[in-house]
Specification:
The protein is built from 23 helices and eight strands. By secondary structure, it is mostly helical. The protein has a domain of 119 residues. A four-stranded mixed β-sheet has the order 5-6-8-7. The chain is globular, with a radius of gyration of 24 Å.
Length: 550
């Protein structure tokens, strides 16, 4: 039996509180120079009046950048503001999961969805701890699903408009998630078209409120970019160029589920669950277990194999043995399975661990539906079997809770030091502190306020921390429609004197000199190293422009 209205909202408040409290100990730890830095740097440029796509390059739709700019305008220019925003986003995601799961399962099973999601947040540290276009778009997609299920139950147009609004928001934040969520909502409508609440309505009448809601957000955004003269650049960056560049630079397939895993650094870095990778590089144990190749491989197989098995099982149950009900549980079950399968496709073309974590939420909804179906099937056969099944799930949930708590404590231990930079009220590892603080202070000494500096190739966070502008359109020098020749021209036109350069590019990409030979050659010939920042195996070069004739 599901809880009554008062009790239901009390449980929702409890889920929301847990969503805030579980990730709280780790939400302000570490700095991700590339992803977090790009978001903060672009938001800062928007705050200074620059226009996305025309003045600032990115291949992602504009939603998250404008949200970040608004948040920092209201709450202050600090990285911790965006971390707190993600803390709220995670709590709202947990709440959406709970409310959707209640439509396909009893409360005991439904609690698995938000509970396991919060465990994923900690296991994925820091990926789901920083504001990100994927996690924000997924939150809106879940909102669209929740409103759709309410619409199927009651037939109210307001729910359909709300679903459309959430779809529009999801698409404005991340284009492929928005499209997949739209297809999932359409599939849910088709699967529930015979519901009494929708009976007798024509297809246009059913679809119109959804389209109206989505258009209410998307059309004004398009008009605004067109008025700013940025619409052609938006279309090129986010719809034309990104497809080719994604397939070329981010083509990382699903890892082998049964076959041998490559024993190379790139595979380990990309596919190992983030928390385990942290233990691995530090040579430490988690709950007395060392992260050996066998343990690492098992974790990868469980994560990816478990997700695929869940989706297959959900599809089979939806097709072969749908459950009847009084309030549309069968249609909700099918809509949730369709949503999980379609949103899982958002993991491609780069099926790395962090992307699996971003699509974990809809997979967990399917898992809840499968667990509930299995529980009902087992309970109908034997009371003993039912107790064994429930004890097994309780053990899994308890183990996840214990591991989550242990990881939280270790993350706090790994990142104990205040960054010590005005715009970065986060705690970091000592080596992060030395690199980021040293690079920020170098740029502040080397360049006057307002004078441009250059941070290459994957250090956009330095623009934000040092409060020095980027002379180019490109805040994140990764594959895409990024022009090395334009970067060189911008450096020369502005007379940029100060550079921080990391010669070892992010492990996912080819060496910087191969991706952008013009920029690498220009830094070599027109700048000289004046100091070296070193922490462990990482080295950042402090460069200044060579004097004429030298």
């Amino acid at each position: 039996m599901r809880p009554g209205p008062v009790r239901s909202w009390a449980w929702s408040a409890l889920v929301l509180a847990a969503g805030l409290l579980v990730p709280l100990p780790t939400h302000d730890r570490s700095v991700v120079a590339i992803d977090e830095g790009q978001l903060a740097a672009i938001a800062d440029r928007i705050a200074r009046g620059q226009i996305l796509y025309r003045d600032v390059y990115t291949g992602i739709f504009p939603g998250v950048y404008h949200v970040a700019a608004w948040l920092m305008a209201v709450f202050g220019d600090d990285l911790v503001v965006l971390r707190r925003a993600q803390l709220v986003a995670n709590a709202l995601t947990a709440l959406c999961l709970w409310r959707v799961a209640l439509r396909v399962a009893r409360p005991a099973s439904a609690a698995l969805a938000p509970g396991l999601y919060l465990a994923v947040v900690v296991f994925d540290f820091p990926g789901l701890s920083m504001l990100n276009y994927s996690s924000l778009s997924m939150l809106f997609a879940l909102g669209a699903l929740l409103a759709l299920l309410s619409h199927l139950e009651r037939g109210r147009s307001v729910d359909a408009v709300a679903s459309g609004l959430c779809l529009g928001a999801s698409a404005l934040v991340k284009q492929n998630f928005g499209v997949l969520a739209g297809l999932a909502v359409l599939a849910g409508l088709l699967l529930g078209r015979r519901r009494p609440a929708l009976s007798g309505r024509s297809a246009p009448r059913v679809l119109f409120p959804f389209v109206l809601g989505g258009a209410a957000l998307v059309l004004p955004a398009l008009v605004a970019f067109a008025a700013a003269g940025a619409l052609p650049d938006l279309i090129d960056a986010t719809l034309v160029s990104i497809g080719t560049s994604q397939l070329d630079a981010f083509r990382d397939p699903l890892p082998p589920i049964f076959g041998a895993h490559p024993d190379d650094a790139r595979f380990v870095f990309l596919y190992t669950p983030s928390a385990l990778f942290n233990y691995l590089v530090r040579g430490q144990e988690l709950l007395g277990i060392g992260i050996s190749p066998g343990v690492r491989g098992a974790a990868i197989r469980i994560a990816y194999g478990g997700a695929l098995a869940t989706l297959v099982a959900g599809a089979a149950m939806a097709l072969v043995a749908p459950r009847g009900d009084e309030v549309g549980e069968r249609d909700a079950f099918r809509a949730v399975v369709a949503f999980g399968i379609l949103l899982f496709l958002g993991i491609f073309p780069s099926a790395i661990w962090s992307h699996l974590a971003f699509v974990a939420a809809p997979v967990l909804l399917v898992l809840v539906a499968v667990v509930e179906g299995a529980d009902l099937a087992v309970s109908g056969r034997s009371a003993v079997a039912a107790w064994i099944w429930r004890i097994a799930w309780s053990v899994v949930a308890l183990a996840a809770a214990v591991a989550t708590a242990r990881i939280s404590l270790d993350v706090r231990r790994w990142y104990p030091e205040p960054l010590g930079v005005a715009r970065g009220s986060l705690r970091v590892a000592p080596e992060q502190r030395d690199l980021l603080r040293g690079a920020t202070r170098f740029l502040e000494r080397c360049a006057r306020p307002g004078e441009p500096v250059f941070a290459a190739p994957d250090l956009p966070v330095l623009y934000f921390l040092a409060e020095r502008p980027n002379p180019t359109r490109f805040d994140l020098v990764i594959p895409g429609n990024v022009s090395g020749a334009e970067i060189v021209a911008s450096l020369e036109r502005t007379g940029t004197r100060c550079v921080v350069y990391n010669p070892r590019m992010y492990l996912q990409f080819r060496p910087f000199a191969e991706l952008f030979p013009e920029v690498a050659a220009h830094l070599e010939t027109h700048f000289q190293r004046v100091a070296l920042l070193r922490a462990g195996e990482t080295e950042w070069h402090e460069l200044v422009r060579r004097e004429e004739g030298r």
